[in-house]
Amino acid sequence: MTEHARPEPESLRERIATELVAARGRTTLLTSVVEEPDLMKQHSPLMSPLVWDLAHVANQEELWLLREVGGRAPMHPEIDPIYDAFEHPRAQRPSLPLLAPAQARRYGHEVRGRVLDLLDRISFDPAQQAHFYFGMIAQHEVQHDETMLATHQLRAGPPALAAPPPAPAPADAAWLPAEVYVPGGPFTMGTSAEPWALDNERPAHVVDVPGFYLDTTPVTNAAYAEFIADGGYDDPRLWTEDGWAHRQRAGLRAPLFWRWEGEWVRVSFGVTAPVIPNEPVLHVCWYEADAYARWAGRRLPAEAEWEKAARHDPATGRSRRYPWGDADPTPATASLGQRHLRPAPAGSCPAGAAPCGARQLIGDVWEWTSSDFLPYPGFTAWPYKEYSQVFFGPEYKVLRGGSFGVSPVACRGTFRNWDYPIRRQIFAGFRTARSGPGARTGEG
Predict the structure, then answer these.
(1) What is the pTM of this model?
(2) What is the pLDDT along the chain (444 residues), one digit of tens a residue?
(3) Do 180 and 312 reside in the same domain of the chain?
(4) How crowded is the C-beta side of 135, counted as CA atoms within 13 Å?
(5) What secondary structure, in 3-state letters, does the chain show?
(6) Are residues 185 and 294 in the same domain?
(7) Which long-range contacts (CB under 8 A, 24 or more apart) does 129-135 make?
(8) Which residue in 134, 147, 125 sits closest to 54, CA to CA?
(9) Based on the domain organization, do 30 and 133 belong to the same domain?
(10) Range of the domain at 336
């Protein structure tokens, strides 16, 4: 699908059904591999109990599809406040009268059955936006799937999840240039026509980005270990004032889940193993990423720089949906969808490279940028301001690209993620940049 194409009603209906079923499959997996006490328990004050997520995705599906699109009366209006993410912070959710796992599953099953019946009957008028609500809900559920995956990573106890390891790095990975050059000039950022793009991705607008250099791949564990060994966590000159205060307050010494046992080891979904040198570093906060970039004599890329590197095709002058083109992701182009439980080695997925030569811009790890989360020119909150608008401001930093835990339906070249600069439980890494000759440093 190009920036100007829209799916026909029947193919759209089939795609919606496919995405809803796939999302529920992941939700079922993530909530069926542990016993009921683990579902009810809060494994970290940063996360909800898994059973809250299980009922929340069903409640949002009922609200937006059965009530908003289908005009149905509420099924269980008394639970709406319990599963309102804005009414109860995560730390408070274990104290709520949550549905038990069996009740949550029955509720989700009942909602989904009614939604699929609605999907069979609904007429998709191109002049209306009913299809967007279905796409929004599919994306919402897989976003919670990634959140639940992060909860599994924080969970103590024996491993509950399993997946095959990613393939070894391709033969040319060791010979890739350290950085690629992205020529300066205007490009179209954001989108006005991607059917399921969320409000913060809109509208499309032209941004003039000076030429810059970008790491060919995300920063690896080996490179990050050099930063640690060189005293990167002990040198306040490498950190912003807020970052240094947080490093001291939180006692940061290495990425989350790393520990030193004569070598660096990492706990990953209940399994402790040596850190793999050529994998992208994972579970670092923005302050750590920024300090590393300073140590390396570089900086984090601005959001506009990241998107230009990922989407701009200098041969045609247009912005692609993905680095490799407009086609949906495949295992050859990006590591997505929880096919593995860790990032693929740096340099993987050569078929997914951008025109500039950068690899793994989509999948593997969310990538911190230097940019605050702000609206695009002409932004309009839709369909509700709490999705994006209430988060705009300097307290949140933008992440781009998606991780191995992101489903393809919620990952594209325009997709914007955001979080506090102290967050480390998310599947975040980074790559660094430097300005080209004569270019200014900054937001680009």
Answers:
(1) 0.95
(2) 344 455 566 799 999 999 999 999 999 999 999 999 999 999 999 999 999 999 999 999 999 999 999 999 999 999 999 999 999 999 999 999 999 999 999 999 999 999 999 999 998 876 668 899 999 999 999 999 999 999 999 999 999 999 999 999 999 999 999 999 999 999 999 999 999 999 999 999 999 999 999 999 999 999 999 999 999 999 999 999 999 999 999 999 999 999 999 999 999 999 999 999 999 999 999 999 999 999 999 999 999 999 999 999 999 999 999 999 999 999 999 999 999 999 999 999 999 999 999 999 999 999 999 999 999 999 999 999 999 999 999 999 999 999 999 999 999 999 999 999 999 999 999 999 999 985 554 443
(3) yes
(4) 20
(5) CCCCCCCCHHHHHHHHHHHHHHHHHHHHHHHHCCCHHHHHCCCCCCCCCHHHHHHHHHHHHHHHHHHHHCCCCCCCHHHCCCCCCCCCCHHHHHHCCCCCHHHHHHHHHHHHHHHHHHHHHCCCCCCCCHHHHHHHHHHHHHHHHHHHHHHHHHCCCCCCCCCCCCCCCCCCHHHCCCEEEECCEEEEECCCCCCCCCHHHCCCEEEEECCEEEECCCCEHHHHHHHHHCCHHHCHHHCCHHHHHHHHHHCCCCCCCEEECCCEEEEECCEEEECCCCCECCCCCHHHHHHHHHHCCCECCCHHHHHHHHHEECCCCEECCECCECCCCCCCCCECCCCCCCCCCCCCCHHHCCCCCCCCCCECCEEEEEEEECCCCCCCCCCCCCCCHHHCEEEEEEEECCCCCCCHHHCCCCCCEEECCCCCCCCEECCCEEECCCCCCCCC
(6) yes
(7) 130/69, 131/12, 131/16, 131/195, 132/195, 132/196, 132/383, 133/64, 133/65, 133/68, 133/69, 133/383, 134/16, 134/20, 134/65, 134/69, 135/16, 135/19, 135/195, 135/196, 135/409
(8) 147
(9) yes
(10) 173-221+279-435
What CATH number is attached to the domain comprising 106?
1.20.120
Asked whether residue 366 is assigned to any structural domain, the reply reads yes
Tell me the C-alpha distance between 340 and 166, whole Å.
6
Same domain, 319 and 365: yes
Number of domains making up the chain = 2
- Spacing of C-alpha 320 from chain mean position: 19
Q: Does residue 138 lie in a domain region?
A: yes
Tokens standing for residue 440? 């200014």
Q: How many CB atoms lie within 10 A of CB 384?
A: 11
